[in-house]
Protein 1
Amino acid sequence: MLMSLALSTTVTVLLCLLGFRKCSGASAWTLKGKIVSGEHWLDDEGGIIQAHGGSMLFHNQTYFWYGENKDAPTEWRSWKMPDQEWWYTRTPALGISCYSSSDLLNWHNEGMALKADGSHEDLEAGQTLERPRVLYNNLTQQFVMWVHVDDAGYSLCRLGMAVSAAPTGPFRYQGSMQANDQRNGDFTLFKEDNGTAYVVTASQKQSMDPRFMLLHELSIDFQRVLPNPFRILPPLDRESPVLFKYEAHYFLLTSGSTFWSPNAAEIFTARALEGPYASWGNPCHGEPMDQHGITFSSQASFAIPLQAPGAPGHFLIMADRWQSNDLKESTYVWLPLHISLRVQKPLQLVSKSGEAANDDNEDPGQDEAVRLTAVRRIALEWRSAWDPHSGLNLPGTSLKYREGRSRVHRLPVAFVARYGSYIHGPEPPDAGLNKG
Ligand code: DGJ
């Protein structure tokens, strides 16, 4: 009896240390002091972190992680077509969770930042709330949350917006709309260095159309979507846009559209926010090689710049490893992404569009002095466990970095003939889209 008790205690402690069990009062993740891929992560009270499709706001030296609370039974549903039926899974919305941390390793549950409490038709329990993103507006001193709002059949395709005076909420829901009259699914927010904010949507005109990416500017208070969006990707049917900036380059990491199943990531780069965006293909790198084509069994959701000393060009990519049969069991895969740049000209005046300025530039006021660089390599590196503050394995340490050009995706000739290039794609299906 005593023997079996001792054995069971030892097994529990071991499981806790390995991060496989809920350990009240301590986070298994913290015990390791590492980010561990594809396991349940625990908060500082031992609760399983429910923050899927998540994003991060860094405010006053604190990281705020917002995500979908999927701690509800997974439902099976279908779309009935004349000749076939498509089955999919979902969870009814509970709300948007918020967790806080000072080190990206130890998380405190701040509770539900936006509750699906029935106070608005978008917040009824049967609805869908996905991929929350939050920005702080300096002017209004409000935190502004945008969220993909849908019904159980994903037929609404709207963006909802909520505001709060505190990062942890409660956010006051303001309503929803289709951004620039397009059906929008996955999206992200992006704040430019000058404080202007944008929303990037995976949009479509009709439900079965392939999605194209639109870049919409937000109003000065971040609470309204302005007209005339830029079409930054043609209808390639990419989802889950992750937009970030490094030096004077913009990076748009995307997934394919396969419901909850993982697929190959594709990253695009541009020298101006409005594009043109060029594909660099799938950035997955390192072992296990057989996981490259499915983004290490995950779908990227958000990017955070990492400031590890002596490690420029490193971002943490937050991704979800979805469990489609039981979505609340989905886990997180956070990996380092490394960008290396090649210096083209040490210091040069460039216009905001990224073109080298010339002497007869009509608007010299738009020019800024920057190092003119080109992207040399983009790699999303596999790690089963790593420390975001010191575990980047830079050149000269444990990982042998092979600098060299990543495979740049060549567009099929037929595609180029149809769309020209990735520059805003074909003529948009309706008027009002800004073609740049
Ligand atoms: C893929 C999207 O990226 C997810 O956020 C979610 O909407 C699923 N589709 C639903 O099937």
Note: The first strand starts at residue 35 and ends at 36.
Protein 2
Amino acid sequence: MIVILTGAGISAESGLGTFRDRDGLWTRYDLNEVATPEGFARNPGVVHAFYNARRANCREAQPNAAHVALARLEAEHAEKVLIVTQNVDDLHERAGSRNVLHMHGSLGGALCAHCAHRWPAPRVMTADDPCPACGKRRTRPDIVWFGEYPYYMEQIWEALRSARLFVSIGTSGTVYPAAAFVQDAARAGAETLELNLEGSEGASDFDACRRGPASRIVPEWVSEVLDARR
Ligand code: APR
């Protein structure tokens, strides 16, 4: 199996900002206010405004050549290809990828903080939106915030244990548990490759690294892998 971890950098050229680069989201917003359960409890309106704006940006965005190349790899490679994304946008799916796990949730989902019911997110979400299941007005974006446990971790660890190849694309390697996946995969015997604009925090943990914008280096790498099979 080929396991691919993606981060905000793969969607940067689609116009969706990263978090920690110059002018990144966390240089313009206080993550404690907009991406923690405590911030949501203090002021849900501020949190909903932040995610409503991100949801609108995502609707305007289009998958780029990197997303498209990964969908091609999944469709044409004999091995199973699994994308584990930290991203909450749906650009992988819109590019045609099917095996995608959103470990940090999705902009397209709403979650009831009272009964944990999930439903498709409305374009504009407010704290007054009633839960379709319990009727309570405790609606939040279905996003994993700092201090919360990521989704699909059992599936992800199982995939890392059986990975032949682990590839990390467009992530700074600063947020755990994703930042440790390269070590988990290497420990299980996988070959590891980083594709990133610049070296991530964990760059030295990879067998090989390539630098450049995802829209160029990901399609190049995918073509090499598929050509090598012919
Ligand atoms: N092509 C390839 N890599 C890029 C590009 C690009 N065009 N633009 C930026 N990058 C790289 C940067 O060099 C950086 O290493 O993408 C990375 C983006 O890092 P972050 O902004 O830290 O985003 P990410 O690693 O996805 O953040 C992890 O942190 O804020 C939380 O939950 C949020 O999922 C997010 C997590």
Note: The first helix runs from residue 25 to 28.
